[in-house]
Design brief:
This protein is mainly beta. The protein has one domain (3-162). It is built from 1 helix and 9 strands; from the N terminus they run H-E-E-E-E-E-E-E-E-E. A hairpin with a 7-residue loop joins strand 1 and strand 2. The longest helix has 14 residues, at 3-16.
Length: 163
């Protein structure tokens, strides 16, 4: 595609799109749309401008949401964390990755005492629907006993493509 036509196509997409997205190379086609999702374990709506984990005004606008919480952790315990993927778009999306960042629960319960597996795969979420994926949360055996039952804030980031 000539550079001028390519630039016009990108500008048209950005102006006419319902959600902001980025382009990547793909073996299947010369261009594929990548959607970005954000979320948090906080009570505020995932992806809300003031929610932890939400993008800053200079980053890509979230095009799907990710939410989930877990309780009952104690040193040495692993639990499932069910994440809800919300697709407000008018087309089905395929979520390919979800990663979790953990924050300190308190000054004595550091984020490094908790680990969360990532999701990598292909989870279809219909237009205007929600889907679920499950990851695992572990509190390391080396965590202080005082961390039992503490609330560790989780922040989620994900990638998806249009189906």
């Amino acid at each position: 595609m000539p550079r001028r036509t390519q630039r016009a196509a990108v500008i048209a997409l950005l102006v006419g799109a319902i959600c902001t997205a980025g382009w990547i190379d793909s073996a299947a086609s010369p261009w594929s749309l990548v959607l970005v999702g954000y979320g948090s374990s906080a009570e505020r709506a995932p992806g809300a401008a003031n929610a932890p984990g939400a993008p800053s005004p200079r980053t890509i606008t979230p095009t799907f949401s990710i939410a989930g919480k877990v309780s009952g952790l104690f040193p040495g315990k692993t639990l499932p964390l069910v994440l809800t993927l919300g697709n407000p778009n008018k087309r089905t999306i395929i979520v390919t990755t979800v990663t979790t960042t953990v924050e300190n629960a308190t000054s004595t319960c550091a984020a490094k005492t908790v680990s969360v597996t990532g999701f990598s795969g292909h989870r279809a979420v219909g237009a205007g629907k929600t889907g679920k994926v499950t990851v695992r949360v572990t509190m390391k055996t080396s965590a202080p006993n005082s961390c039992e039952g503490k609330s560790f804030p989780f922040h989620y980031t994900g990638k998806a493509t249009e189906a």
